Amino acid sequence: MNAKLTTKTIPVKLKENSHYIHIGKGLFKTIASHIAKLNPGNFGIVITSPNIYAPYRKLILKNFKPGKYKIIQVVDGEAAKSKKWLFEVVEELIRANSWKRRPFIVCLGGGTIGDLGGFVAGIYKRGIPYIQIPTTFLAQIDSSIGGKTAIDSPRVKNILGVIYQPKAVFIDPDFLKTLPLSHFKEGLAEAVKYGVIKDPQLFNFLKTHHKKILQGDPSCILRVITACVAIKAKIVEQDEKETKSLRTILNFGHTFAHALEGSLKYRKISHGQAVALGMVYAANLSFNLGFCSQQPVSQIKEILELFGLPTTIRFNQLKAYQSLVYDKKFLTGRLRMVILEKIGKVRVSEAISPSEIKKTFKVLNRPFIDKYR
Ligand SMILES: NC(=O)c1ccc[n+]([C@@H]2O[C@H](COP(=O)([O-])OP(=O)(O)OC[C@H]3O[C@@H](n4cnc5c(N)ncnc54)[C@H](O)[C@@H]3O)[C@@H](O)[C@H]2O)c1
Ligand SMILES: [Zn+2]
Predict the structure, then answer these.
(1) Does the first or last residue of the chain, that is N or C, have fewer Cβ atoms within 10 Å of its Cβ?
(2) Which residue has the least CA distance to atom 7 on ligand 1?
């Protein structure tokens, strides 16, 4: 790495396909030279989209020169994870094919582009190298790490996917300068999640520095990114394929979030908002079941409110319940969920009963009055 840049490098040590995650302000300015050192191939297909291409055009063109790279712009947002864009990228790879060329993919964008590009890389000719350059806060702390890739069918999100590790991940927080605050908050919900599941210090940092973080203070944001990435990398190292239920703890707040998203058909709520509500729900459920005291429940709610994330919602409880029942995590009449013990400690329970699930729905519908009871 460039000595002038203060780059933090976090390893992801796996049985196969170990790699590094590089985090540094300004890293993207000279990204082509960092990629070249990895020798992933000699022809890069850069997948990006208009919202990223427009503000970073100069740097993109400076780094990804014709002859060595081809830049393709897919649609912004979730629609990129579709059959249409899968085949657009595949066609581009086929066009780029020649006996001299060893193609690789560069995913330059949010989680949608990372998921699409990683998926194509995983299945094209049974796998070609790819590089993650995440440009949203969520992608920088979550989706670019761990090798989970997927596209959607018209009715079901992430239904086609593979676990396929990138050659490297390059995280440049400077990208966040152009990210709308609403998208930044998507990532904040996940950052709070990391604090809750593994890191009380991160949780405290988020609370005490919430104003600076919301104002986009670079050093605070760098610190949060580094802490989150380190947590996810460690979890992935220990349970890459999610066979030991260790990786499952990353789903804290997500069981209810997915049910809510499903019951609202993804229209009225963003994923970050759903995760915020899901964490409030999971924390309350844990309290109701006697796994934790009231204090961490109130702390979670407080921090989410500081970040302007929702903690109550009017929703159709029957629809949400049905959505939960049909969720793949529902095993033998009992729900599998990540349960809170205290800030920094969670565990997976396989035995949550339907009646508790329904009972706890109420906490999201009523104003929260109990503080440190
Ligand atoms: N693979 C995983 O482990 C994993 C984990 C979590 C989420 N995901 C997936 O990630 C996706 C969500 O990712 P996301 O939240 O990054 O959304 P996204 O990729 O849709 O990006 C959000 C919006 O911001 C724009 N954008 C991206 N970077 C920008 C920048 N620097 N400046 C201005 N605009 C920018 C995008 O064009 C898009 O319009 C979902 O499809 C989800 O399923 C995957
Ligand atoms: Zn999430």
Answers:
(1) C
(2) 143
